[in-house]
């Protein structure tokens, strides 16, 4: 059945690929809708995160052996966990940096923030303990350039002699 319409592929109207050509308005009719198209939002911004959810999802898919099937909420959850742990470590490293009166976080400050549960720092603001016991158990990696944790065993410390109490009675004159 020939239907008058547009010339497509050398034919006027008719059927091409199972579709009837030349009938109806066709298309989505974007000219008169009056709606403005919203800018696309990333999954990280939808979840209120700074870490890239799409990249975490891609990394999870490449490292999972079950045909790359990973749920979309798993990537959001993993990105949220990574962001929380990073913020925690950076906060503790920033505190160590501030206590040592420098302006740049170095690997040494990261080491003190993670493993410095034995490190007690005496600052003008008082005594502060650098480090977090939970982070120390969680992170077992060696930090390059982190140095060593200052710790002296109690048995090696100099014992301060206790002044003897005065047991002598004062002399009577």
UniProtKB/TrEMBL annotation:
Gene3D superfamilies: Histone, subunit A (1.10.20.10)
Keyword Nucleus: yes
GO molecular function terms listed in the Swiss-Prot or TrEMBL record: DNA binding; protein heterodimerization activity; structural constituent of chromatin
Keywords carried by this UniProt record: Chromosome, DNA-binding, Nucleosome core, Nucleus
Pfam families assigned to the protein according to its UniProt record, in alphabetical order: Histone (PF00125), Histone_H2A_C (PF16211)
InterPro entries: H2A/H2B/H3, Histone-fold, Histone_H2A, Histone_H2A_C, Histone_H2A_CS
Record keyword Transcription present: no
Domain Histone H2A C-terminal: 133-160
Core Histone H2A/H2B/H3 domain ranges (all copies): 34-116
Compartment(s) where it occurs, according to its Swiss-Prot or TrEMBL record: Chromosome; Nucleus
GO cellular component entries: nucleosome; nucleus
Oligomer status and interactors: The nucleosome is a histone octamer containing two molecules each of H2A, H2B, H3 and H4 assembled in one H3-H4 heterotetramer and two H2A-H2B heterodimers. The octamer wraps approximately 147 bp of DNA.
Family: Belongs to the histone H2A family.
Stated name of the protein: Histone H2A
